[in-house]
Design a protein that fits this description.
disordered N terminus, Outer membrane efflux proteins (OEP), elongated, alpha+beta
């Protein structure tokens, strides 16, 4: 009895602990210790809460409301959520292999044999059966399958986080583009007023004999060119509003009224806690998804290896069959069977070994995809940091250019009105002012875009 108990204990330990195939280990990503662009030594992010709701750091209530609506109502996000539910159901289906399978069947049959022999006449039979089978996962094939399903579930969850992050960034970017277009429209209209005033002065001076028709033509052409920009900007603004509506899962035209009110491009001047490169491994959803896919592929190797070994099961069946319904429950109508069984694929022409090699190649592909994902993540962070830093420098120069061009326009108009300079100087000054103010507006958009790209590259959000 003691020997039997020891055998059962060893068998239970073997069943619970043995699983063929390789154990998964996170692939070496070769991450550097510091960011190459930053001159300061990077330190781990003490608190990632600053990245969780990064859009709030722009201090724009409309932007915050739009982003937080989109992460639930966007149709791409809802599709990713549906894929997560699929992965959860697939995991549950894989785990069902640990439980016994029980089937039942039953029938009532009538037979009619005509003639005069011993089998002639009508007969009826009643039959019911109950069968059960429980596979003993001795070599861990089922456990590896569940492990693979767990990893696929983790990948689906990371993909949902990634879709939410992408959608938050897309809404923020489209919103900033809308505000930039509204700013450009305001710049064009403001310069148009100045140019029309100058054109009026030119007409008056021409009528008085102090200006030429060439001056009038140049002034009118500048006014017409500036006017031509306004319809294009209004079209772009409307298209941006429609794009935001679709991102919110709404038909074009069903957008909040706050979008029609012009606002400046939102900016944030606070420092972003970039942390160290290894922080990306836990923050970036695409890296977590790639790692989970590599884990799932590794576990599927174990499933393929387990097919080389015999599969043991405990089976049993209960059959009740009688010619009369009154005799159906009698012991004589009952047939039972039970006992162990096994199935071993001894020869399949090399198909099992080929499947193992295929699963190993799929694992290698998943590992390479993980490493590439990490490299792309590093590039995106570095590119966003470089672009943000240099755009801030460019914005300082553009601020100075706008201020100088405004002075130049004011002085040139005064001198031209007094007859002390040619109109070409007024024309050049007004063109330069329009260009520098437009460039400054685009720089605000570029700076906001770079900050959004950096938050997204760092995996902020979920």
């Amino acid at each position: 009895m003691r020997s039997s108990k020891s055998t059962l204990a060893l068998l239970g330990l073997f069943i619970s602990g043995c699983a063929v195939g390789p154990e998964f280990q996170r692939p070496d990503s070769g991450l550097p210790a510091n960011w190459s662009f930053s001159k300061r030594k990077a330190v781990p992010a003490a608190n990632s809460a600053d990245l969780v709701r990064w859009w709030r750091r722009f201090h724009d209530s409309a932007l915050t409301a739009l982003v937080e609506q989109s992460v639930d109502s966007n149709l791409d996000v809802q599709q990713a959520a549906a894929r997560l539910r699929q992965a959860r159901a697939q995991r549950q289906a894989a785990a069902s292999s640990f439980w016994p399978f029980i089937d039942s069947s039953g029938s009532v049959r009538e037979s009619d044999a005509s003639g005069s022999g011993p089998l002639s006449g009508n007969s009826r039979s009643y039959h019911a059966a109950l069968s059960a089978a429980w596979e003993l996962d001795l070599f861990g094939g089922n456990r590896r399958n569940v492990e693979s399903a767990d990893a696929r579930l983790a990948a689906a969850a990371a993909n949902l986080d990634g879709m939410r992050l992408v959608m938050a960034a897309e809404v923020a970017l489209t919103y900033c583009q809308l505000r930039s277009i509204q700013d450009q429209n305001a710049v064009a209209r403001r310069n148009l007023i100045t140019q029309e005033s100058s054109a009026e002065i030119t007409h008056e001076r021409r009528d008085a004999g102090f200006a030429s028709d060439l001056d009038v033509a140049n002034a009118d052409a500048l006014v017409a060119n500036t006017k031509a920009q306004i319809p294009r900007l209004e079209t772009a603004a409307r298209q941006s509003v429609n794009a935001i509506a679709v991102l919110l899962g709404r038909p074009p035209g069903q957008t909040p009224a706050m979008l029609s009110e012009a606002r400046p491009v939102p900016t944030t001047s606070s420092a972003i806690p970039t942390g160290i490169p290894s922080d990306l491994l836990r923050r970036r959803p695409d890296i977590r998804s790639a790692e989970a896919n590599a884990h799932a592929a590794t576990a599927r190797i174990g499933v393929a290896v387990a097919d080389l070994f015999p599969k043991f099961a405990i089976t049993g069946s209960l059959n009740q069959q009688s010619a009369k319904l009154s005799d159906w429950l009698s012991p004589a109508a009952r047939v039972t069977s039970y006992g162990p069984s096994f199935n071993w694929a001894l020869f399949q022409g090399g198909a099992l070994q080929a499947n193992i090699r295929m699963q190993q190649a799929l694992r290698d592909e998943a590992v390479l995809a993980y490493r590439k994902t990490v490299l792309v993540a590093l590039q995106e962070v570095e590119d966003a940091m470089i672009a943000s830093s240099n755009e801030r420098k460019r914005r300082v120069s553009l601020t100075e250019a706008v201020s100088a061009n405004r002075i130049a326009v004011e002085l040139s108009v005064k001198l031209y009105t007094a007859g002390q300079t040619d109109f070409i100087n007024v024309l050049n000054a007004q063109r330069s002012l329009l260009q520098s103010e437009s460039e400054f507006t685009l720089s605000n958009l570029a700076l906001a875009t770079d900050m959004i790209a950096l938050y997204k590259a760092l995996g902020g959000g979920w």
